[in-house]
Amino acid sequence: MKSIFLVGFMGSGKSTIGKQLAKKLKLNYLDTDDLIEQTANKKIKTIFAEDGENVFRDLEHQVLTSTSDLGYVISTGGGIVERQENRAWLSTKQVVYLKTSWETINERLQADQDRPIWQDQSRDKQLLLTKRDSLYRDIAKITIETDNQGVDQIVDQIYSIF
Ligand code: S3P
């Protein structure tokens, strides 16, 4: 079976849903953020702090384009759509967009300490969501609204499509 790539903003549930979906479809599971941390041998927070966002985005591109198009459910980082090359690469794949409202994201990430973009006070995250929302929609084959559904329901919905 062809790999399924999950995209969506920080806090949209890509990892939680990805793991359950992979189990249900009997596919392997990968998370691009985990692969980046393994490649760099550093936490994402540390890569941003020591090397900067550009180095992180280079690693993210490298890791994404090395993933297999067969046999995986792959959760991607929320900023995967920032680079045009990633959008072009993903637009030929089975991409599922987990669409989540600003209110839900804001509530979920209230206590988050690990996401440098979320912590960056100089950025307007709500505006970033609006901008990325259209990028996610452009590359996705399927969009799932996650706000009023539990994890099991979302997984079942994606499962029934593939
Ligand atoms: C980022 C999202 C994070 C991680 C990094 C940058 C972003 O992934 O890749 O902190 O630019 O939105 P999650 O979407 O899994 O939080």
UniProtKB/TrEMBL annotation:
Binding site for substrate: D33, R57, G78, R132
Subcellular location, record wording: Cytoplasm
SUPFAM superfamilies, alphabetized: P-loop containing nucleoside triphosphate hydrolases (SSF52540)
This enzyme's EC code(s): 2.7.1.71
Gene Ontology molecular function: kinase activity
Protein's pathway: Metabolic intermediate biosynthesis; chorismate biosynthesis; chorismate from D-erythrose 4-phosphate and phosphoenolpyruvate: step 5/7
Residues annotated to bind Mg(2+): S15
Known catalytic reactions: shikimate + ATP = 3-phosphoshikimate + ADP + H(+)
InterPro entries: P-loop_NTPase, Shikimate/glucono_kinase, Shikimate_kinase/TSH1, Shikimate_kinase_CS
PROSITE patterns according to UniProt: SHIKIMATE_KINASE
Organism domain of life: Bacteria
Binding residues for ATP: G11, S12, G13, K14, S15, T16, R115, Q149
Reported cofactor(s): Mg(2+)
Details of cofactor binding: Binds 1 Mg(2+) ion per subunit.
Keyword field contains Iron: no
Keyword list, A-Z: Amino-acid biosynthesis, Aromatic amino acid biosynthesis, ATP-binding, Cytoplasm, Kinase, Magnesium, Metal-binding, Nucleotide-binding, Transferase
HAMAP family (alphabetical): Shikimate_kinase
Function: Catalyzes the specific phosphorylation of the 3-hydroxyl group of shikimic acid using ATP as a cosubstrate.
Family: Belongs to the shikimate kinase family.
Quaternary context: Monomer.
Record protein name field: Shikimate kinase
Native source organism of the sequence: Amphibacillus indicireducens
Gene designation per UniProt: aroK
